[in-house]
Amino acid sequence: MAVALTPLSIPGRAGQLVSQLGDRAELHDVYDETGSRVYHDVSVRDTHEVRELVALVRRIPGAVLELAAGSGRLTMPLLALGREVTAVELSAAMLELLSERLAEAPERLRERCVPVQADMSSFALGRRFEVIVLGTTSISLLDEEGRAGLYAAVREHLAPGGRFLLSTVDIVTPDDPEAAEAVPEAVIAAVGAGGRAYRMHDYWPAGADTRTVTIFPAEIGDEGPVTVCTTTVGVLPVDQLGAELGRAGLTVLSGHPLPGAWRYRDVLLEVGVTA
């Protein structure tokens, strides 16, 4: 069932297109039952940050706690390393997709994964892990209070000498700031794992502290319903995140810039507990 979204909830050209579709547009949050399957289709073959993150995990022996695991885009490569992975995810729809993937996976992978439905800002698992992973810039889903809860939970669950690996954005200063400000929206073509084509609108005005991503089918006919999935996430620059981690008793040990995107690039941070 569509969530209570309206065209006014979606800014930019994406919102204009939804308005033009009128009653044909069926709006969903990216994390509801319908939206999670679209997101999964779009993201499951996305290898962005996977190689870099797996390389860091490979250096640190021990069990892995993955936060905001989603449908398993990082979970499956982590299991392929031979690790025990506890996969925490709040969305029941996303966990169902992960369970479906695990059911189709070899037993040697499936038996080492423990899916857990929990909020990454307030979880208590009663054990510690050598590695805690939070990928896909998912920390941007949390507000300041939620991030404070996350940092406290990470400290509680990180084994001595362990590492917290997470990604966030690094804002890229454009060559022409005025031109960048005049174009607050990028449109990205993507093909899902099932072969379906999509068009993703990434709306981020210069200086704004949130981004809105809206996913449409690449081809929209003249009749019938059109599934539109959207989400708004925070923008948490690497400097701000580093300062917050420091205040929470966590230290950024290294940063690994990832291939750039439109007006930002992701950075993978390696974090330890402050001595």
Helix/strand order = HEHHEHEHHEEHEHEEEEHEE
Tell me roughly what share of residues is in helical segments.
Answer: 25-40%
Instruction: Name the assembly state.
Output: single chain
Q: Report the CATH architecture of the largest domain.
A: 3-Layer(aba) Sandwich
Largest sheet: 7 strands, mixed
Structural class: alpha/beta
- Classified by CATH, the class of the largest domain is Alpha Beta
- In the CATH scheme, what's the topology name of the largest domain? Rossmann fold
Overall radius of gyration? 19 Å
Count of helix runs: 9
Task: Tell me how many strands there are.
Answer: 12
Count of individual domains: 2
Shape by Cα distribution: globular
State the gist of this model:
By secondary structure, the chain is an alpha/beta fold. The chain has helices spanning 12-21, 33-43, 50-58, 75-80, 92-104, 107-110, 144-157, 177-182, 238-247, and strands at 25-29, 64-66, 85-89, 113-117, 129-134, 158-171, 185-191, 197-203, 210-217, 226-234, 250-260, 264-273.
Question: Overview of this structure, please?
Answer:
The protein has 275 residues and is an alpha/beta fold. The protein is built from nine helices and twelve strands. The chain has two domains: 7-28 and 174-234, no CATH class; 50-172 and 236-273, 3-Layer(aba) Sandwich (Rossmann fold). Helix content is 30%, strand content 33%. The strands form two sheets. Strands 4-3-2-5-6-12-11 form a seven-stranded mixed sheet, with helices on both faces. A hairpin with a 5-residue loop joins strand 7 (185-191) and strand 8. Helix 2 (33-43) packs across helix 5 (92-104).
